[in-house]
Amino acid sequence: MTQQRLGRGPLRTPDPDPPTGPDDGGSPPARFVGWLGGLGCLAAGYAVFQFLFGVLPDSLGGEAARYLVAGVSGVGTGVAAWLAAALLRARASAAAATAGPRDPAALGTGALAPGPGPLPEVFAAAYETLVAQVSVVDDPDAGRLTGWSHSLGEPGRPTPATTDPALHRPTPVGTAYGLHTMLDLGMPDGRLSTGDLVETLWRLRLPGGGWSARSQGAEARPEVTALVLGALARAGASRQLLAAEVDRCTGAFTRQLDRPGRESTHVVTTVLRGLLRAAPDHEIVPRLHEALVDGAISDDRRDHLRCWSYRLGPPYGPPSPLHTALAVIALDRAARVLGESAAARAAREDGVRWLLACRDAPHHSCLDLENLREEVRRPRTDDPARHEVLNVRHFTASWVARALLTPGALEAARRDGLMTEWRERLDGAISAVWAARTDGIWIWGRGDSTELRRPMWMTYQGLSALRAHAVWMYQPDRPAVPRHH
């Protein structure tokens, strides 16, 4: 899909004062009066003058009286025609200002097309693909598992439960993101059961409790555990049922036991988002919030505004749009739950201003939207001389779009007079999100290789960004543009 189409279609952020369009003429009387006004006041008045001068009788007091009556009538008719035309133009302008542009060239191809726009089609395609590629595996130890692996269509790994290479054993990460996605899509039919996905996540729990990614082995890790707990809480799991796993997750997430995790912006924001869903009143939540605020750094290349890097402690590393977006989202959500100090609000709003200060262009392909990869390296507990490595890929455009769509970001942009920059950066991020999909599934290119992957997390993040943008754009107080058939 070309960028021109993306810019004109339903992804463009609407202006608060849409431009007016030409009047189409309206009713037959309105068209007649408009035509009459188009002749000009003098022409209409002269026509009336000539008509009356020719039909008035000579007995009306002489020729001078006939000239006087005809002249006054002609002037009155001309003034009336001018006023009528001016009134119709004023009404047409007011109607156009309310309904928005009516010129198809100004609206783009999607605005006048019958039926729904492309976004419902993307959601429907995503749902059909996820339903078609869900794995149902009977595991001899865990029982029946229903869910997804890390990526759609990846090569199968034979196990005692999945000897068929066409089957992919569900993983905690893939199934948690799949559950999030299904909840976003609304589960329109019964081909997939939320209960089956929830039960699968519980069955995938490690023997000692908690969850981990495939590359992390048999030891639970807080970022994966918090991701799963957040999905379970969103699906309706009770606080009492989640409490034991929350305690295991938070008990191991200390500087003494997991220093690399506590210094990672990605890990801290992931845990904070998950706990805000699963255990918002837990004592660790305000501590993580404070650590995130304290981890902000100043960037002299962007007016010394505060932002975030991949680390929350020295050595910090360079400023990062991706990690700044992660921090803005987590801080905004925490502010709604915990409240917010002046220092926390200042740091969060500086992060928003920093994202808006990007000077690279065009904004749909600027450097701030480049996808990133990072590693989270931890010493192995069974052999501290060796490291466990978690490779994390980041869909940057999605995170930036969602950061700019937070209520706090919009509030800060309005207060600072940065709405033009906000719209430009948001339009660019959403266009980049839209361009990365094929139908309803998002694709991650593997470097210089021609092999492509379709990670579950990327599809969830893409759909989540488009859904948040669509909700923000919904303005029921504006009349719909009339459709032409």
From TrEMBL:
Family matches, as InterPro entries: Terpenoid_cyclase/PrenylTrfase
Record's keyword annotation contains DNA damage: no
TM ranges: 32-55, 67-88
Cleaved signal peptide residues: none
Organism superkingdom: Bacteria
Protein keywords: Membrane, Transmembrane, Transmembrane helix
Segments of this protein annotated with the region Disordered: 1-29, 147-170
Protein name: Squalene cyclase C-terminal domain-containing protein
Organism the protein comes from: Streptomyces broussonetiae
